[in-house]
Design brief:
The chain is built from three helices and ten strands; from the N terminus they run ββββββαβαβαββ. By secondary structure, it is mainly beta. The protein folds into two domains: about 100 residues; about 90 residues, Vaccinia Virus protein VP39 (Rossmann fold, 3-Layer(aba) Sandwich). The two termini are about 45 Å apart.
């Protein structure tokens, strides 16, 4: 893996305080089939006394194209000891790694809905405005997980999408928990278009 850009920043509060904040960013070019990635690391370090220093760190790795994301939180203690003309140190740390993955799918909405084999906690439907009401019940029953949230946009913009109000009517008919947001709280909003939130 080749590092093509590295930026570091160290801030020292004062010599007496001996605290530091380090921010490092890297864009890495993958080779031999590895994917490119962007990495960020933030570390805050503070001296406890002349021998020990404590640190807390946050590292974020994101792969390009797949957008796979990995985050690690870590805290540690470093001990430094002079041994003759050299200094030795040891560090003990604990951390937790969090990984998530975002899959970007380019597909016709109907094709995706009926080929998908998994359920989701949150679904935002804003693709096929002309036909999405036709498979609304399937999305609610098959793709939305229990306690999930399903959202539709433009449901009260009947001048352009007269079919989308059918989803609201179907929610009422099936007694599904839902709320239509269609009133502006700021002059810059366009809530009159209608944002439907359905709770399973």
């Amino acid at each position: 893996m080749k590092k093509i850009a590295i930026a570091s920043l160290a801030l020292f509060a004062s010599l007496a305080f001996a605290g530091s904040v380090t921010l490092e960013g890297q864009d890495q070019l993958g080779d031999k089939g590895a994917k490119n990635s962007t990495n960020y690391q933030l570390t805050v370090k503070e001296s406890i006394n002349n021998t020990f220093a404590a640190d807390v760190g946050f590292t974020n790795y994101q792969q390009n194209k797949t957008e796979a994301l990995s985050t690690r939180l870590e805290t540690g203690v470093t001990g430094s000891f002079p041994v003759g003309p050299v200094g030795v140190y040891t560090r003990v740390a604990v951390g937790e790694k969090y990984t998530s993955k975002i899959n970007i799918v380019t597909s016709d909405e109907k094709e995706f809905v009926f080929s998908c084999k998994q359920q989701f906690d949150l679904i935002m439907s804003d693709a096929d405005h002309m036909r999405t009401d036709q498979w609304f019940e399937y999305v609610y029953d098959a793709l939305l997980a229990d306690d999930g949230i399903l959202c539709y946009h433009d449901v009260t913009l009947t001048s352009m999408f007269p079919n989308l109000i059918n989803i609201v009517h179907k929610c009422q008919e099936l007694n599904l928990r839902h709320k239509v947001f269609n009133k502006d709280s700021l002059s810059t909003e366009m809530c009159f278009r209608g944002f439907l939130v359905i709770f399973k």
